[in-house]
Amino acid sequence: MSNDIDLTGRARIRDAALVAFTEQGEAASIRQIARRAGVSPALVQHHFGTKANLRAACDEYVLSYFRDHVVSGLDELGMAEPAYLAEVYASAPVVIGYLNRLLMENAPDAQGVFDALVTLTEAYLPADPSSPQRDRAAVLVAMKLGLLLLRPFVDRALGLAASSHPAGDPRISAAQLHLLNPALITPEVMAAARRAVGTEVAQ
User: Fold this and answer.
1) pLDDT: which is higher, 64 or 126
2) pTM, 2 dp
3) What is the dihedral of CA 62, 67, 73, 75, to 10 degrees?
4) For the chain: N or C, fewer Cβ within 10 A?
5) Considering only CA atoms, which of 188, 156, 153, 151 is closest in space to residue 173?
6) Helix, strand or coil for residue 7?
7) Is 38 left (phi over 0), alpha (psi -120 to 50) or beta?
8) What is the C-alpha to C-alpha distance for residues 76 and 37, in angstroms, rounded to an integer?
């Protein structure tokens, strides 16, 4: 979600729409989103025109969120820093909730969002003559998103509290690292990921 300084006009409406679409899916109306944002329906239409345009703005926000966190977490190895993890834990639940609802309802641009995440992931996978990068990226994204969608079941299977780290959990993160093929990522990123799990456990 946006910082408080950005919560005016267009950004406030978009943030309200993220929550509304998460809770109601396509049933969310411009009037309901306007009420949640504390603005008039006319202002929503002024900024976005139609609900479809507002939905597209939410989709782009979610994709930007993932792009930014991939850069800061992987390229800059921020994932090993407690401040990075704290920010993800604070900001990710709304994004994940929106993405889960989008995919479960197969909303109008769900495929486009999925494809964009595949393209983002593809750039980080090493070349392998035995398996095209696009194939591996699509399956890896499906596996990661599947964990998000099935997170309540995983929590119950592991005896974790439902409110425990909405964006992740040290035990789940550690299990993913053990299952992950080290060849998928660079040694530097793998080392940072292992430090991150260690940091989380220490907290």
Assistant:
1) 64
2) 0.81
3) 180
4) C
5) 151
6) coil
7) left
8) 35
Residues 9-28 as b/e (b if ≥16 CB within 10 A, e otherwise) read ebbbbbbbbbbbbbeeeeeb
Longest dimension (CA), the chain: 56
Query: How many angstroms from the chain centroid is the CA of residue 197?
Result: 19
| CATH code of the region 1-49 | 1.10.10
Outline where the chain has alpha helix (H): 10-24, 30-37, 41-48, 51-70, 82-104, 110-122, 133-149, 151-158, 170-179, 187-202
Q: Of the spans 50-59, 87-96, 100-109, which averages the highest pLDDT? A: 50-59
Where along the chain do its domains lie? 1-49, 58-202
Residue 72 is given by DSSP the state I
Residues 171/57, Cβ–Cβ less than 8 Å: no
47/98 Cα distance (integer angstroms): 21
Cα 87–91–97 angle (5° rounding)?
150
Q: How many residues does the chain have?
A: 203
pLDDT tens per residue across span 101-147: 999 998 889 999 999 999 999 988 888 889 999 999 999 999 989 98
Most confident of 28-32, 65-69, 81-85, 191-195: 28-32
| Chain position carrying tokens 């989008």 | 102
Q: For residue 116, give both structure tokens.
A: 């964009």
Residue range 187-200, pLDDT digits in tens: 776 676 666 666 44
